[in-house]
Amino acid sequence: MQPSHSRLFMAAPSLLDKAAVSSTPACLKHLRLFDLIHCPRSSSSAIICFHPVPLLSRALIAINTTVSSHDFDMQPRNILNAILIACIPSVDSHHRSQPNLHQHTLHRDNNIAISDYRAQAIKEAFEFAWNGYETHAFPNDELRPTNNKSANTRNGWGATAVDALSTAILMESEHVVASILDFIPTIDFTISKSGEEVSLFETTIRYLGGMLSACDLLNGPYQHLATSENITIALVQQAFRLANRMKFAFDTPTGIPANLLDFDTNGFNMSDPVGPATAGTLVLEWTRLSDMLSDLSFANLTQHAEEQIMHARYSVDVEEPYPGLLGSKIDIRTGNFINAQGNWGSGSDSYYEYLIKMYVYDSTSFSTYKDKWVQAVKSSANNGVGLHPSSRRDLTFLSSWVGEYISPVSSHLACFAGGNWILGGLVLQDQTFIELGLDLVDSCFETYNATVTGIGPEGWTWTEDDFLDETNFYKRYGFDITRPAYNLRPEVLESLYYAYRATGDSKYQEWSWRAFQAINATCRIGSGYSAITNVNVADGGAFTNFQESFMFAETFKYAWLAQAEDSKVHVGQGEKQEWVFSTEGHPFKVRTSQ
């Protein structure tokens, strides 16, 4: 009988590779193979590691903590992954807070091996999560990692598999790519397997985006991963079938689509309002599909809807917000906004995101989108939407609005804006937008710095004015947590990636790594990763037992890209970009570089 949490890790000298290169981190120089030996011990005893490298010992002790507190899968590849994550060193950011270009180049050269090992550790984490999903949940939509069950919240079409594909391609994880490519042609997108309504928005960004991105990648720098000559044709055919099946969503008096679709009746509720993000985050994917098919019908539908949202109309009793900033509910029968309450977060976020990304996709065809984006960013910067907490004037958070009234509440979702503003600054060659974006990135990362787990919460609030009832937490960190959960979201990692690509400042690599370490340490459970209920308690509160597909599409991807210097797909540092990332993190080839 083997004790469930009693194992001795011994790095046996006879198994060590003595030909370690000098650039290898100290904790990995001698570790190539290791033995796993079961030994009885009490749950409170420490792991003994017979190895001369102290960092490795600390790493194994860290794993012991994980084993004691979570249902850790004791497979050798998972143990090695945990060692990689636990013991790859961090570089003290105080030595490089304001590096010049020459200093940065030298610093990056000296630490390139560390970045490579970090990227490998993140890839191992991705593959660990994939293996758990494939073993226990595939081809269902999601994994419930604590009890190895499955869920179908995205109509039972295998959301995790399709959403994970572009990340697996970028990481060149051949077995994952092959498994997903074998599966996608078998999906029947004409019926909802779960019997639930189909979300036009979620289906577009996860399924349609995942398949189209894979086409671009496999027809481009990753041709060697294509499993057959015709696989990209099969992907486009499936994307066509899915989009064609959802076309009836646009059969409204205004052409602004409904979101929740009944595939059994081809119907929807005309009285249900939609948000700017719901109806305004289709245009990139559907335009890309049109370009691949040489069929303008898909692009025309979404571009017509986008134009109506951009030129917003308001009901007579609704006060218009600031120029370029919108309400959150649109009547699809009239095209009018029925409220003036909005934000850069839930319900609106990716509408603003796609205004500048469509310009990146084709700067000639979508220049008016860029103009609307500039208007929205300037309104946010000039009208108090970006606020500074009273106890931390160095921080800037994007607030919400109701008409012209500003409400100091923000969210993890809104933290995408830092990276988005940086991207806009890059392609418009406007340093002001880049600096504004960097302020947001730095501030959003502070929400990670502030918590016990090192992970940022879903929502928070603050005040611009001094008040007597300040908590000690607020005095120190500049915000109070209102929603303490973490749902495996990518937005902070995403913005850290853009910040690193724009500046070359390795502190953003370092912050990204720290965030990933915290997520790995707190959210990894059983056969995968779970959302948690409280980022400000040591164990993350409780596990929700649900692993979102966007963990694969975005969270792993942006963490990996920040470290993977030699990736074939990256955000460029200049006006011309070769790729643009969708709101789900799927990279598309831009028109102008084809």
Outline the structure in words.
Belongs to the glycosyl hydrolase 47 family. The active site is at residues 202, 349, 458, 491. This is alpha-1,2-Mannosidase. Its EC number is 3.2.1.-. Its cofactor is Ca(2+). With 594 residues, the chain is mainly α. It has 2 domains: 1-89, no CATH class; 90-593, Glycosyltransferase (Alpha/alpha barrel), CATH 1.50.10. 44% of the residues lie in helices and 9% in strands. The chain is built from 19 helices and 20 strands. It has a 3-stranded antiparallel beta sheet, with no helix packed on it. A hairpin with a 4-residue loop joins β3 and β4. α4 runs antiparallel to α19, α5 (159-170) packs parallel to α19 and α15 (431-449) crosses α17 (491-503). It is globular and about 60 Å long. 53% of the residues are buried. The model is unreliable at 1-74 and 91-106 (pLDDT under 50).
Name a few traits of the molecule.
disordered N terminus, Glycosyltransferase, 2 domains, 594 residues, mannosyl-oligosaccharide 1,2-alpha-mannosidase activity, globular, mainly alpha, 19 helices, three-stranded antiparallel β-sheet
